[in-house]
Specification:
With about 350 residues, the protein is mainly alpha-helical. It has one domain: Rhodopsin 7-helix transmembrane proteins (Rhopdopsin 7-helix transmembrane proteins, Up-down Bundle). It has eleven helices and four strands. The protein has a two-stranded antiparallel ribbon. The chain has a two-stranded antiparallel ribbon with strand order 3-4. Strand 3 and strand 4 form a beta hairpin. Helix 8 runs antiparallel to helix 9 and helix 8 packs antiparallel against helix 10. The chain starts with a strand and ends with a helix. Keywords: Cell membrane, Disulfide bond, G-protein coupled receptor, Glycoprotein, Membrane, Receptor, Transducer, Transmembrane, Transmembrane helix. GO terms for molecular function: bradykinin receptor activity; C-C chemokine binding; C-C chemokine receptor activity. One of its GO terms (biological process) is cell chemotaxis.
């Protein structure tokens, strides 16, 4: 017998002994009744992700925003990517506490809505920031003569603003349908999505899959293939590639690969769950476990990105050294003034 609970995605369903959950008005994640392992492992894992994510992404934003040099177009996109990750990891501790007390929401309904909306905005905003940076690298390498004209810092900032606005619009159903629901059988209060009809759930999930995964991944793959082809062609023709372009492109490809590795399983399980809902696929406990694991698996991407900037991004390392030198000098001067 399985037990109904509300997971990080906060969805619900009914369960039965022999079948997967029959979805009423929302998607669900159901796990075996013996879920002590989840309540034991998930909260500390989420807390570690939160602490590391806050430290790393604040550091990245400080290097990008407080440095004396203005950010390049690529760095503008990466700084907004860090901001989206920072917003995510700030919300995760609430869900860590939620998991710790057996999915009994202890906070207000407003916090339930806001934290859920921020978490749902993260993959949407992240992937579109990566779409924009992929297009920037594509234009820089494949159409270099047009790059300075159409890929300026002003347009990059404007593009980031559009992504944030569309991300907020994308999260509107979370604000509307995410509510606190009391389960009298378990005596628990869940922070869950409560659609008024099954069709609303299906439309919501299909929209998420199309606009947060399929369309942006197609654009990213197209740009990436063209970028790799151009780099190979120039090497074969012994043509000069500006070092700055090559380094920036290497970093972006690493960040893109990391995003796909950590987020593709999450979106694949969403697609499989929609197919299960429409009865195209039969349900299996493996899918239910995969849904749980893929959510927590994807969150690590918010910690990994700053690490990639340091390991792969030589320009970022140079900025970091200059940043520390400037602030160390300022701190030294201030200390001398105070001591005198």
């Amino acid at each position: 017998i399985k037990k109904e609970i509300s997971s990080m995605s906060g969805n619900q369903s009914n369960t039965s002994e022999d079948h997967c959950p029959t979805i009423n008005t929302s998607q669900s994640h159901c796990i075996p009744e013996d879920n002590s392992l989840i309540f034991t492992l998930v909260p500390p894992y989420i807390l570690v992700i939160s602490v590391l994510g806050i430290i790393f992404n604040v550091f990245v934003l400080m290097v990008f925003c407080l440095h004396k040099k203005a950010c390049t177009v690529t760095e503008i996109y990466l700084s907004h990517l860090a901001l989206a990750d920072l917003a995510l990891v700030f919300c995760l501790p609430f869900w860590s506490d939620y998991a710790r007390i057996s999915y009994d929401w202890p906070f207000s309904e407003s916090l339930c809505k806001v934290s859920s909306a921020v978490i749902s905005m993260n993959p949407f905003c992240n992937i579109y920031f990566l779409v924009m940076v992929s297009i920037d690298r594509y234009v820089a390498l494949v159409h270099p003569l047009s790059h300075e004209r159409i890929c300026s810092p002003f347009y990059a900032k404007l593009g980031c603003l559009f992504v944030w606005v569309f991300g907020l619009v994308f999260a509107l159903p979370i604000f509307i349908y995410r509510k606190l629901t009391f389960n009298p059988q378990s005596n628990l209060t869940h922070c869950s999505l409560n659609f008024t009809s099954p069709d609303q759930y299906l439309m919501y999930e299909v929209r998420v899959i199309i606009f947060s995964f399929i369309i942006p991944v197609i654009i990213i793959l197209f740009c990436t293939v063209k970028i790799i082809q151009t780099l190979r062609k120039r090497r074969m023709e012994v043509l000069n590639i500006q070092k700055t372009d090559q380094k920036a492109t290497t970093l972006i490809l690493a960040v893109l690969l990391a995003f796909l590795i950590w987020w593709v399983p999450f979106h694949v399980t969403k697609i499989l769950d929609v197919l299960r809902y429409t009865r195209i696929l039969k349900c299996h406990i493996t899918l239910i476990i995969a849904q749980q694991v893929s959510v927590y698996f994807a969150f690590f991407n918010s910690v990994l990105n700053p690490i990639l900037y340091v390991i792969v991004g030589k320009s970022f390392r140079n900025r970091t050294k200059e940043f520390f030198n400037v602030w160390l000098s300022a701190a030294t001067v201030l200390l001398l003034i105070v001591t005198e």
